Structures are given as C-alpha cells and as structure tokens.
Amino acid sequence: MHPKLLSAVAFLLSCAAHVHALSPIFFECQKQKPGGISPLLGCPEGTIFVSQTDPKAHFRTIQSAVESLREGPAIILIAEGSYDEVVNISRTDPLTMLGQLPRHATLSHKPFANPQSANMNLVQIWFNNWVMTGEDDDTSAVLTVAPNNAAALIGAGTDGAPLQPVFGNVDFKMYNIDVQNRAANYAISQALATDISYSNASFYACAFASYQDTWYTGKNASTFMIDSVVFGQTDYLFGFGTAWFQNTIFANRACGGGLVAWKGFNQTYAPGNRYGAYISDSTIMRSPDANATTVTDGKCFLGRPWNDLAITVFLSTLMDDSINPAGFEPFDSARPVIMNTTYYAEFNSSGPGGNTSERVAIEHLLTAADVVAEDFTVDGVFLEHPKWIDYSYIL
Ligand SMILES: *[C@@H]1O[C@H](CO)[C@@H](O)[C@H](O)[C@H]1NC(C)=O
Ligand SMILES: *[C@@H]1O[C@H](CO)[C@@H](O)[C@H](O)[C@H]1NC(C)=O
Ligand SMILES: *[C@@H]1O[C@H](CO)[C@@H](O)[C@H](O)[C@H]1NC(C)=O
Ligand SMILES: *[C@@H]1O[C@H](CO)[C@@H](O)[C@H](O)[C@H]1NC(C)=O
Ligand SMILES: *[C@@H]1O[C@H](CO)[C@@H](O)[C@H](O)[C@H]1NC(C)=O
Ligand SMILES: *[C@@H]1O[C@H](CO)[C@@H](O)[C@H](O)[C@H]1NC(C)=O
Ligand SMILES: *[C@@H]1O[C@H](CO)[C@@H](O)[C@H](O)[C@H]1NC(C)=O
Ligand SMILES: *[C@@H]1O[C@H](CO)[C@@H](O)[C@H](O)[C@H]1NC(C)=O
C-alpha cells in the first residue's frame, strides 16, 4: 500500500477507536470542543449545559438542571464526568439528555455495544443505594422517570404496587450515558439502575450496570433501547410494561434467577396489551468484568416468570455458553412449575447457548412464519409506530 494511503488508513482507524455510534441530529452538539469554543456550538437553541468543571456550565449537577426546566421540550448536554447523584425526571414534556462525545469523533463510527471491548461513555451517572428489608425497590434507582412517587413504586406480589391514573414523560431520550448502581460488586439485594414507570423512554449507546434488578420498565411504560449494554446477574431485566431491546449486549456478571423476570397482565386490565420484554439482534454473554473465579458456564437462565402471565421473546440473538440449555426455569420452589399462561419464545438464536434442543417444553420455538404471524416487531408490540423513538440513530 502507498505510504500516504497507509497513514490515511491509520488515521481513520485511530478515529474509529474513539467513536461511538451516534445520532446525526445531536452529533455536532455532543462533540467536545477545543478551549475557547462554546461547548454548546452545534446544539439546538436553549440547550442546557451541565459540567462539574467548565465555567460555562449552567449547572454542576444533572438533577439541578432537570429541576430548572420550565414547560416545553428540553435538551440537556452533559460534559465528560462521573456524576455521583440520583436523577429523577417527573416532568411530562419531552426531555433529551446527551452525553458528550470525544472531540475527534467522526461520522465513521462503530457500534457502542461491541462484545470485543467493554466500552464506556465519557459520562457516568452513578449512585450506590440498595434495598433494605421493607423498602420498595424504587428507593434504589439511580435514574427514575415517573410522574410521581406513587407511580415509581414497584411493590410486591403478582400485581405489584396499585395502578395509578397518571402518565409521566411522553418522550424521554438518553444518548451516550452510563447509568451505574455501584452498591456492591455482587448481588447485595435489589439495586436498580433505572425505574421507568408510566412514561415513554428510549436509550441510544448507553450502558446500565448493577447486579440485581438493573433495568425496570414499570406499569404503562414503553421503553426502547438500542446499541447499549446492560450488566447484571439476577433478574436484571424486570418490569410490567413493554420493553424492546435492539442490538444490545446483556453481560452476565454471574448467574442468578433469570436474565429476564417479567410480570404480565391479563387483557382485562389493558385490552390488547402486549406487555413483555422483547430482545432482538442482541448478544448475551459472560460479562468482560465478571470475577475470574465466578463460574457462568451453563448456569445463566434466559428468564423466570415473576408472575404466570410473563412474556419474554428472543429474536435472532447470539448466546454464549453461559446460557443453561433449558433456557427458562420456574420462579422458585414455592412456584415449581412454569405455567402455560406464560409466553416464552425464541427465534433464530445462535451461539453455543442458542442451541434450543434441550429447552423447557413450555417454550415456543418459533419459525419465521410464526414471527410474522405474531407481529414481533417494534410497531407490533407497541401497537403503533412509536413517535418517541429516534429512527435516525446510526448503528
Ligand atoms: C421525583 O420527583 C417527584 C416530583 O417532584 C416526586 O414526587 C418523587 O417523590 C421523586 N421521586 C424520587 C424517587 O425522588
Ligand atoms: C394505563 O393505566 C390505566 C390506569 O390508570 C389503564 O386504564 C390503561 O389501560 C393503561 N394504559 C395502557 C396503554 O397500558
Ligand atoms: C385479570 O386481572 C384482574 C386484576 O388482577 C383480575 O381481577 C381478573 O380476575 C383477571 N382476569 C382474568 C381473566 O384472569
Ligand atoms: C471474586 O470471588 C472471590 C471468591 O468468591 C472473592 O473472594 C472475591 O472477593 C471476588 N472479587 C470480586 C471483585 O467480587
Ligand atoms: C438469524 O440471525 C442472524 C444473526 O445471528 C442474522 O444474520 C439472520 O439474518 C437471522 N435470520 C433471520 C431469518 O432473521
Ligand atoms: C394449561 O395447563 C392446564 C393445567 O394446568 C391445562 O388444563 C390446560 O389444558 C393447558 N392449556 C394448554 C393450552 O396447554
Ligand atoms: C445441540 O445440542 C444437542 C444436545 O446436546 C446436540 O446433540 C446437538 O449436536 C447440538 N446442536 C448443535 C448444532 O450444536
Ligand atoms: C407512549 O407510547 C405508546 C406506544 O408508542 C403510545 O401508544 C402512547 O400514546 C404514548 N403515550 C404518550 C403520552 O405519548
């Protein structure tokens, strides 16, 4: 190769090494700027800037920026940093939170969710609450998107906390931000990264980390996640609402319970509902940060039914050998049978853990025709073409 071409290739590769997948809409705004240039260059008018160090910052903490918001859509740009705080979004109007991208980011990118590297964003939001006896799970969440405290409650039993006649954020978006519950480096108890309840929310190139109950999509909530990473051990996706996970990595830090522990609802409560967890074109693997002494081979289950109407569907997902051949397991010894009212399904799984020959009999092993007939698509499960998803995001 010509030396000039070689150096051009080397330059492109060095750029690519820094770059995350991104939103073309916010790319210029998110890029860090050289000194003397406004960090808000390229941002939509009215964007609020949060930084722990930059004198141009409007706020030093994310929550103080959230609390300053008046009515109407809002955008908050967050500078590189590790933010030790709980973030609580109770407003109903649209809100977009952007994490800064490296200054040399280019549109020639690679996916953020890359099994070969444990990517980190420049922005981390973290806290370390875990649930003590008698407390509601929601007390531990690092990021809460819910209209009020009653709506954020998770509750116990098959039906959880009482239904609330409210709706929160109609369009919450988060790009290139890590949300971490750092309560412990094992499953100390419920320690949530998120509680998204009675809201519509979407996430792009984000990471969510904990051990137990990392991700919660609550009642009446609809969530969409793409090109992201979720770290956990026990029941680390749970909820009542509808959640679609696209091109996401699920990183098993150890095994316990199931990856997904969903609660379904009958059609009396919400006619036509397709509440459930839908995982598409994703990867389930032993976490790159799993303790070296922790054995995961064949020990992690795809799910267990938190109630008997649980719905969980895996589409075209790569599963490594941490997955137990049976796939799903009963909830616990008090409920030793997976009832046929659950709906557990898989289509086109691959990898050593994707061998479905020894799956529990109750599971539905789908054909391509079944997937079409059941309409397992984003529009199909949200019962419409969601207006709150950014379809311009480039993988
Ligand atoms: C979040 O804010 C709302 C409104 O101020 C409040 O009702 C709720 O208790 C807060 N929730 C948490 C978890 O702090
Ligand atoms: C949301 O909750 C209300 C109860 O407050 C319920 O009647 C309604 O069916 C729910 N809507 C959806 C879309 O789930
Ligand atoms: C549906 O759920 C409601 C509320 O939990 C319950 O009262 C009702 O009996 C259930 N209906 C069916 C058919 O299971
Ligand atoms: C890794 O596991 C060993 C053995 O169980 C334990 O002693 C050690 O504390 C663990 N380390 C971490 C970081 O969890
Ligand atoms: C099956 O999954 C693989 C990725 O593992 C994908 O490339 C292929 O398109 C999928 N097939 C169908 C029919 O969706
Ligand atoms: C579900 O299981 C019950 C017994 O628990 C049985 O009566 C019923 O026929 C089963 N339904 C289906 C569709 O298999
Ligand atoms: C799947 O697992 C079964 C049972 O262990 C084994 O016989 C079969 O060869 C496996 N299939 C593939 C494609 O590895
Ligand atoms: C939330 O999303 C669902 C599914 O896209 C939609 O039906 C509902 O109207 C949305 N709610 C609001 C308040 O925008």
TrEMBL record:
Residues 171-379 form the Pectinesterase catalytic domain. One of its GO terms (biological process) is pectin catabolic process. This is pectinesterase. Pathway: Glycan metabolism; pectin degradation; 2-dehydro-3-deoxy-D-gluconate from pectin: step 1/5. Belongs to the pectinesterase family. It comes from the Eukaryota. Keywords: Aspartyl esterase, Hydrolase, Signal. Its EC number is 3.1.1.11. It comes from Mycena chlorophos (Agaric fungus).
